[in-house]
């Protein structure tokens, strides 16, 4: 008994020492200011894509094309959660924050992997959604901001993980939920909602970062009398029109505009809601202080293919016809790569080209409006096939831009098509309402496709594809990180590997298998002059569902285990 007592005392001492270490680690936490967000330090990764512009680019170059082959795991940490992990590690001066499915937030020592604190959220017993994804946290001041599924925005104390405030976004019983990371500009915490498949009316909402008080709310489907309302020709279809905003926006500090992508119209079939249906499948520009919409661009009108355009465009300048354009670059789910212009007066169309096979658009006119092949447009009682499938040429995984190479790197999918046939479904609040049942969603690949997943590099100013890496027997679900060290990092395949490619040539330079599949964005940071690359492995959600379809269609039996693990890599000393 005496020995047991000594062991209990030792365990208590160890726990106390661990708590003291955690307190010491966060005691000197560096507040994240507005100026730091506009010009983030190279050694930190302060927001989900590294900067407001959404580049997914790290200026660090200690890990480079010459030495990445020596990269090894430095530490790892299990999140304790299954399902699809889609959030990047966020790092502020040695403290790492990672969110997981079900809106759990972990704070860790970014150098050692030591857990500093954990926040877990309980969902209402009657809550349901398509999935429990969370795509990251946002930092501002001395707080960490995350969305909860039901949907809420939560502010946590960065030093302790304790809740400072919560703000309810909408009623989950009507189909609303939230999965995206907040975007913070000028002390406004902005977030959007998921739920397009349940017949919600999408919006972006902003809260005061200190109090959680709502500042503004802008709907992405206009009410009667508002600009764009004439594009909803059938009365009342706007009330449940979709256009959910389920990916984080980007921001241009120069024009002081945020850019948000909107999702599919609801229900899926356009003949049930005639008109162009603004602002579905679009990019909208909003003033972060007021929520006023200053412009929009719709990628395809009267969406009938479930081609959400939820990713915000990258804020990238490019050269066109010898002139520099203050631009936006958008890799669309509909299979086209778009070059757009940005100004305080709105968003303009510059050019576009398909980056995967696309058989729906006959052409795109001078304003960017596609001419649609009606035989490729499904409707109510009308079956039609189309390429790419509803998962698109690129689904939600982020592309990345490298200013040193002038290229954008795209995690794409090729050689897959789909078919749909609509029907009229009774609307029931909070229930699936698309006009098609899940078992009837068509997905088509050849019995032996040459490849499905592909990682592409495009010259932004030249408008040409420079290289691509193809992945046999797997689709590509890996968000991309690119670095000043001439590297492109991505996972996304069913062999569970995380890879580094040469940014100029696409040559594979390094790869390592992880515990599960990598569908989260990588990030990079440095501590004491040592660079690290971090990513979370954890397969699930659409990648997992699609893998099951591919198994059935091709016989490629790939078992990808679940389980979230944070991996941190570096070059050995």
Brief digest:
This protein is mostly beta strands and 573 residues long. The protein has three helices and 40 strands.
Plain-language structure description:
Helices cover 8% and strands 35% of the residues. The radius of gyration is 23 Å and the shape is globular.
Briefly note the structural class of the backbone.
Answer: mainly beta
Q: Taking Cα atoms only, what radius of gyration do you get, to the nearest Å? A: 23 Å
Order of neighbouring strands in the sheet with most strands: 1-34-35-36-37
Note poorly predicted spans: 1-9
Query: Based on CA inertia axes, which overall geometry fits?
Result: globular
The DSSP helix count reads 3
How many angstroms does the end-to-end distance come to? 45 Å
Proportion of residues in β-strands? 25-35%
Largest sheet: 5 strands, mixed
Average pLDDT across residues?
A: 94
Characteristic terms for this protein:
40 strands; 573 residues; four-stranded antiparallel β-sheet; 3 helices; five-stranded mixed β-sheet; mainly beta
Produce the secondary structure layout:
Elements: H1 2-27, H2 34-38, E1 57-58, E2 72-78, E3 90-92, E4 95-100, E5 104-109, E6 115-119, E7 138-140, E8 143-148, E9 152-157, E10 163-168, E11 183-185, E12 188-192, E13 203-208, E14 214-219, E15 250-252, E16 257-261, E17 282-286, E18 293-298, E19 314-315, E20 318-320, E21 323-325, E22 327-331, E23 336-343, E24 346-354, E25 361-364, E26 370-372, E27 384-386, E28 400-402, E29 407-413, E30 417-420, E31 442-444, E32 453-459, E33 464-471, E34 481-483, E35 487-490, E36 497-502, E37 508-513, E38 523-527, E39 530-537, H3 541-554, E40 565-570
């Amino acid at each position: 008994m005496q020995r047991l007592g000594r062991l209990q005392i030792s365990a208590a001492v160890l726990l106390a020492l661990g708590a003291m270490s955690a307190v010491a680690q966060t005691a000197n936490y560096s507040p994240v200011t507005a100026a730091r967000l506009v010009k983030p330090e190279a050694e930190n990764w302060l927001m989900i894509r590294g900067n407001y512009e959404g580049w997914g680019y790290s200026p660090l170059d200690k890990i480079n094309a010459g030495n990445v082959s020596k990269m090894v795991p430095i530490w790892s940490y299990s999140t304790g959660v299954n399902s699809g992990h889609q959030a990047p590690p966020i790092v502020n001066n040695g403290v790492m924050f990672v969110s997981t499915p079900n809106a759990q937030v972990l704070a860790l020592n970014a150098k050692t992997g030591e857990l500093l604190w954990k926040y877990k959220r309980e969902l209402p017993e009657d809550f349901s959604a398509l999935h429990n994804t969370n795509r990251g946290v946002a930092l501002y001041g001395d707080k960490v901001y995350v969305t909860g599924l039901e949907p809420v925005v939560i502010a946590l104390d960065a030093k302790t993980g304790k809740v400072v405030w919560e703000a309810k976004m909408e009623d989950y019983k009507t189909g609303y939920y939230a999965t995206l990371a907040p975007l913070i500009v000028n002390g406004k915490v902005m977030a959007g909602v998921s739920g397009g498949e349940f017949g919600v009316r999408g919006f972006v909402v902003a809260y005061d970062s200190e109090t959680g008080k709502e500042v503004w709310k802008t709907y992405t489907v206009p009410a009667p009398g508002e600009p764009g309302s004439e594009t909803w020709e059938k009365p009342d279809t706007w009330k449940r029109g979709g256009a959910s905003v389920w990916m984080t926006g980007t921001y241009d500090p120069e024009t002081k505009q945020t850019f948000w992508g909107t999702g599919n119209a609801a229900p899926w079939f356009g003949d049930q809601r005639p008109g162009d249906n603004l602002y579905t499948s679009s990019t909208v520009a909003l003033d972060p202080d007021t929520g006023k919409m200053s412009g929009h661009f719709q990628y395809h009108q009267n969406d009938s293919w479930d081609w959400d355009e939820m990713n915000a465009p990258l804020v990238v300048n490019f050269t066109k016809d010898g002139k520099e354009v203050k631009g936006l670059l958008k890799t669309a789910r509909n299979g086209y790569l778009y070059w757009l212009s940005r100004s305080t007066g709105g968003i303009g169309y510059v050019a576009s080209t398909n980056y995967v096979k696309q058989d729906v658009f006959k052409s795109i006119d001078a304003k960017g409006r596609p001419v649609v092949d009606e035989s490729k447009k499904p409707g109510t009682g009308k079956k039609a096939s189309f390429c790419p499938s509803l998962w698109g040429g690129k689904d939600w995984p982020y592309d990345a831009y490298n200013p040193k190479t002038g290229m954008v790197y795209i995690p794409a999918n090729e050689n897959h098509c789909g078919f749909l046939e609509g029907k009229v479904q009774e609307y029931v609040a909070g229930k699936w309402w698309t006009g098609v049942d899940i078992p009837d969603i068509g997905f088509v690949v050849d019995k032996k496709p040459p490849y499905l997943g592909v990682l592409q590099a495009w010259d932004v100013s030249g408008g040409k594809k420079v290289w691509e890496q193809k992945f046999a027997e797997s689709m590509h679900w890996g968000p991309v990180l690119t670095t000043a060290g001439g590297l492109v990092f991505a996972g996304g395949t069913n062999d569970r590997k995380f890879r580094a490619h040469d940014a100029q040539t696409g040559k594979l330079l390094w790869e390592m298998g992880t515990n599960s599949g990598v569908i989260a964005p990588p990030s990079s940071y440095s501590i004491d002059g040592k660079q690290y690359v971090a990513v979370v492995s954890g397969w699930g959600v659409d990648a997992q569902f699609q893998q099951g379809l591919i198994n059935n269609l091709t016989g490629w039996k790939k078992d990808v285990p679940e389980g979230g693990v944070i991996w941190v890599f570096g070059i050995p000393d």
